[in-house]
Amino acid sequence: MENTDYQRDLPLPNPDPEHPPLTWVSRSTDSTCTITQSRYDDEAEIAGQGGAQVAQPGLGAFTRNLGTVEAFAIVISIVIGSGVFTSPGSIDTNVPSPGAALLVWLVGGVLAWTGAVTVAELGTAIPGEGGVQPYLKYIYGDIFGFLAAWTWVVAVMPATLAILSIVFVESIYSSLGVTGEGDSLVHKLLSVVVLVVVSLANSINTKASTRLNNFFVVCKFSAIVALVLAGVVVVIIQLGDRDGQIGGGDWVTKSWFEYRDSLNHDGSITHWTDLSAWEICGHLSAGLYAALWAYSGWDKAIYISAELSAPERQLPLAINTALPTIVLCFITANTAYYVLLPWDVVSTTDSVAVTAITRLLGPVFGIVAAIVICLVVAGSLLGNSFVAGRMAVAAARSGWLPKPLAVLGHLGLEPLATPADETRPLLHPTQNGQETSSPTPKASDAPINALLLSTILSALYILLGSFRALLTFNGLGEYTFFFLTVVGAIILRYREPELERPYKPVVLIPVVFSLVSGFVVVRGAAFAPVQALVLVGLWALGLVFYWVQKRLSAEGQES
């Protein structure tokens, strides 16, 4: 779920009608607009007393005041995150040529585009907030909704936080000219420290964790523009002087689609001419997962529909203009990497942007680039940590996870019992002896228990996994359910043809997504059996938990 600097909105479980879904505030801003989605901060009704509360249904209503231009900008901000700076190395090591790498970025973009269009169809037809869980529950039953929520809480989001923490440290290492240390204990421990600091920041207060978003978005787009401009300058200079030593040089002397041996992150070499077509497909699937990590967030485009003045027209228009723009942006940025770096360097680094600037302009500018990329990654970390806790809260509120995960404001199993009026006045003496009152600061509304769970799981993934293994693990978890969701959209076309669909793309779009994503999931699982087995084990554990919880709930009702 890279995303992204946008505070990735939560795939909320769809509770029964007697228990409306938990909602909260999530903001993503750029120079043109601010999106305020579900009401959590200020408009959620809180049950419990004082500093610790159990989240209750939100009462906020949306104002339909966004147009197509605002929707376009929001979708851009949702999808473009830190992945474009970090995924290229993982892609390059799994493709036989730079041209093939750019094609992988194109295929990933087409998947994101067709997936977003199909989810828009479901989102305008099926009531329910957030993510794919309500759609899976509607199409296949409660157990599939639970498994999706379980997967995001125990696998996808913790893996996302682990990946971002690793990338943060890797960016610092790259600025110092150090690569290939991602598996060292020191690197992993530093990544855990970064993770803990971000989790503590999100434990302070909801509003405190959202105020820096504007700054992070500016850093993100500034970095992309700077990289593309650097690539353009190098192209212009080298076309004028082909013997010049600026940039990587390979882009002008070698074929972009000719097979070349790949130097891997661990020092091994892949000889592409010795591999079978099936083996090459396995590598391409792993590379595609890295691209899909960069495109993650496309499934959140549906969230803006509640604030569009004409969603059935504006949402498809926003998606069908924003996603091609993003694809073009990503392909352009990656072309710049291959212009700025020797081609045998791209696959060796997990912070390719920092490496490119360091080699082009020297260590001082490399440190500046590392700071900017670290800020971008920090924004993604902060946003995804924010969301990870709320996802667990939402699942607990729906009865899918233990209730203590829904406790807000303190660490413990139960809400604190304190006076209900959390803004009661405090009396302060004045100079003339009279007392004046002022409200007490609002207590923390952070889901401490849920954040602790997310931090522990993420730390385990950091210590036991690696950046590239976690990319594949994350992609397998997400796209298994994305595949099921889009197949479900096709099923509904025939099972419920009378279902009102304000937006209905041609059936070829979900068919293309289903075929490609289904192949990628199956081939990716065969190529990375360890990650696939871990995921299957988590699903089995989830099914046991689901059955036990249902059994205990039934026994409780009988007694």
Largest sheet: 3 strands, antiparallel
Strands of the widest sheet, in order across it, are 3-4-7
Strand content: 5-15%
H/E series: EEEEHHHHHHHHHEEHHHHHEEEHHHH
**Secondary-structure-derived class:** mainly alpha
Overall outline: globular
Provide the gyration radius in Å. Answer: 24 Å
State the end-to-end CA separation. Answer: 41 Å
Poorly predicted runs of 5 or more residues? 1-62, 418-431, 435-441
Give the averaged pLDDT, no decimals. Answer: 78
Count of extended strands:
9
GO molecular function, one term: L-amino acid transmembrane transporter activity
Keywords: Membrane, Transmembrane, Transmembrane helix
InterPro entries: AA/rel_permease1 (IPR002293), AminoAcid_Transporter (IPR050598)
Subcellular location: Membrane
What is the topological layout?
Layout: E1 27-29, E2 34-36, E3 44-49, E4 52-58, H1 68-79, H2 83-86, H3 88-92, H4 98-125, H5 133-140, H6 142-175, H7 185-204, H8 213-240, H9 250-253, E5 262-263, E6 269-270, H10 277-295, H11 311-340, H12 343-346, H13 352-361, H14 363-397, E7 407-408, E8 425-429, E9 435-439, H15 448-464, H16 467-495, H17 508-527, H18 529-558
Antiparallel strand pairs: 1-2, 3-4, 4-7, 5-6, 8-9
Region (Disordered): 1-26, 424-443
Pfam families: AA_permease_2
Biased composition (Polar residues): 429-441
Give a quick summary of the entry.
It comes from Rhypophila decipiens. The protein is mostly helical and 559 residues long.
